[in-house]
Specification:
Elements: E1 8-9, H1 19-26, H2 35-43, E2 50-51, E3 57-58, H3 61-77, H4 81-92, E4 114-115, H5 116-123, H6 127-135, E5 144-145, H7 147-160, H8 170-186, H9 188-191, H10 196-229
Parallel strand pairs: 1-2
Antiparallel strand pairs: 2-3, 4-5
Helix pairs in contact: 1-10, 3-4, 5-7, 8-10
Length: 230
Amino acid sequence: MAAASAPRRASASGGVLSIGQVLARLSPEFPALTASKLRFLEMQGIVTPLRTPSGYRKFTPADVERLRLALTLQRDHYLPLARIREYMADVDAGRDPSPPAAVPPSITPAARRYRRAELLSAAGAGPQLLNDAISTGVIGAADTYTEQTLAVLRALVALERHGIEPRHLRPLRQSAEREAALIESALAPLLRRTDAASRGRAGELAPEIAGRIDEVRTHFVRAALDRLLR
């Protein structure tokens, strides 16, 4: 099942969910789920959400179930996304495949880690760009780096071509920290409690609030770009 080359347009709002609402529904089952993970699953072709005329993602109930299935296969069966896509493609084609067998955790490949030279090579980045990213706090200094760090460094490489350097992105990191503090403040009544139900509710609300903030931020950026391009 390949990702659609062009996003579907949402013709009606009934029954569709924002990315924050999807997080609120799935986070109780998958506490580590984030908006970034949902976007990654979209990029990998697991779902193709609708798009509003303004470009906002809108997920149907079927999208939510596909996400739940993919996340369950990852968590409980330790399956890579390539195998999950194959299974879903069989389901979509009406082939009624057998449920994929779980891969024993003991032989599941560990998450890839990159040494500095490997990270630079994989990202196509120069040493100075990584040094600048570390010195400005965009990337944390470490002996080895994760796939997420690789994705950030690749983005920095692309932005560098447009004259945007890591030092220009420092306000983004500071903004993210302020947003996290804002969410913590909103959830303070729940976080002060010690019972599991309150902590669980905080875990549900945090990604939903973050998703709403992300939507507002996107609106501000789009509005600013509209003014710039008029």
